[in-house]
């Protein structure tokens, strides 16, 4: 039963509940008209304390395509936060007006705090370098639709594995499926945090390896998940500039990959995938963005209990 729940961490929902969401997303994709009024009279508040294009727009588009309405801010300086209001008070107040909240915040754990004070479901749209569970729903729906399964795959995750919250959430979520192998590709400075390596991968006996060179492993991958080096989380500009171009996926490198490998990326891309790869039939990142809207439609409808 998903009605009334919040989504703060990818493990908040059972595999069964995730399947309910993916099944509903597929129903919406094949018959969007049937769902175009299920949220009539409902309001989504989007509280974005950190910049976003896709996530904010896809939440808003999702709610509007369900017949609901949206209010919110993307510039905290234009809200009472700039007067010193606490997150707890902001969220309590917004709960008086909206039926559901989607929030992005630069601080790790902020979504959890919001959930504690909100009277309505809270969806974590990214909390600092921690988690981003709705991007993971997007990634999983794409994998399920294109690959037909969540099992028996070799998944390469490449780029900023230290600060990339989408990486942390994807690893958590995929750790529950069977017989997957992870190849973690990053410079030494941007390896996955210890808590992910120990609590998720080692504890669950998941096969993984950590490597630095993308070319060496390209041929073994079923999925390549590229990520951006997270500029905004660096303390030191020089270090960012040094690591920024660690990986650039080119058509030349794509020649090393299997014919049915797929390339995913949460976007925005900076220059880690060159534009020439966009025309490769294995490039799925823009379709992935579209799945993101459908899966958020399914999520909102389930949490509001309207379907
Ligand atoms: C991601 C994020 O915000 O963490 N973007 C997104 O939501 N699609 C990835 C990123 O910013 O690199």
From TrEMBL:
Catalysed transformations (reactions): carbamoyl phosphate + L-aspartate = N-carbamoyl-L-aspartate + phosphate + H(+)
Residues annotated for L-aspartate binding in this entry: 83, 165, 228
Entries under InterPro entries matching the protein: Asp/Orn_carbamoyltranf_P-bd, Asp/Orn_carbamoylTrfase, Asp/Orn_carbamoylTrfase_sf, Asp_carbamoyltransf, Asp_carbamoyltransf_Asp/Orn-bd
Amino acids binding carbamoyl phosphate: 54-55, 104, 132, 135, 267-268
Location of the Aspartate/ornithine carbamoyltransferase carbamoyl-P binding domain: 5-144
Pathway: Pyrimidine metabolism; UMP biosynthesis via de novo pathway; (S)-dihydroorotate from bicarbonate: step 2/3
Enzyme class per UniProt: transferase
UniProt keyword annotations, A-Z: Pyrimidine biosynthesis, Transferase
Keyword Transferase belongs to the record: yes
EC number: 2.1.3.2
Record-annotated Aspartate/ornithine carbamoyltransferase Asp/Orn-binding domain positions: 152-301
GO MF terms, alphabetically ordered: amino acid binding; aspartate carbamoyltransferase activity
An annotated GO BP: amino acid metabolic process
Record-stated family: Belongs to the aspartate/ornithine carbamoyltransferase superfamily. ATCase family.
Protein name stated in the entry: Aspartate carbamoyltransferase
Organism: Clostridium polyendosporum
